[in-house]
Amino acid sequence: MALQVILARVRAAEAAAGRILGSVQLIAVSKVQPDARVREVLEAGHRLFGENYVQEAQAKWPGFRAEFGSVAVHMIGPLQTNKAKLAVELFDAIHTVDRASLAEKLAKLAQARGRCPQLFVQVNTGAEPQKAGVLPEALDGFIADCRAMDLSLAGLMCIPPEAEASGPHFTALAAMAARNGLAGLSMGMSGDFEAAIAAGATHVRVGSAIFGARRYG
Length: 217
Ligand SMILES: *Cc1c(COP(=O)(O)O)cnc(C)c1O
What we know:
The structure is a single chain. The protein is of the alpha/beta class. The protein has one domain: Alanine racemase (TIM Barrel), CATH 3.20.20. It has nine helices and eight strands. The protein has helices at residues 2-16, 35-43, 54-68, 84-90, 100-113, 136-148, 167-179, 193-198, 208-211; strands spanning 25-29, 48-51, 72-75, 93-97, 118-123, 155-158, 184-186, 203-206. Strands 7-6-5-4-3-2-1-8 form an eight-stranded parallel sheet. Bound molecules: pyridoxal-5'-phosphate. The site of pyridoxal-5'-phosphate has 13 residues, from strand 8 and helix 9.
């Protein structure tokens, strides 16, 4: 199945980049996919998935988790502050921390619960007006603010502009993570995950190459 092909490509890209085999986590992005396709990937043994919408994830994952045991699900879509509580209960990681109000809410929830999902700060590396994410020039200050709230960060995430080569964005994100002492790099999708691995990605988010094209509506 496509999952095995993509896993093999991830391992080959790790080897080509001189990375430790298994050091890159493949997040199978299951948003909007029919349950039957998700089930096939679970039955093949995969246990790490990505979702974009809190409500969709809430409808889908409690049942699959009851059936398949522990499955890690990462939130990779924009997160409204009023859904943060649901999100920290549902997800093992949130890749889209992109503003102070959300960071403050997550810090409060972490304190109340005594634990918190892994957190990635989304960076708008292309400074695109329509795209979420902290602007590169504001990033170091934002990270310092998060740390001042006792919010522990796992890494950075980006979605490069569609019309540009991704490579320079991946390299730039890796440099921002390194200078802030962050190990996690969530970058690379179906079309460019090998380039992301070459640039140091620790988490690649691959949807359509595993599940087939998404059909909305
Ligand atoms: C949908 C989505 C992906 C997966 O995209 P594909 O091109 O289908 O691999 C990855 N990251 C984010 C943030 C997404 O919204």
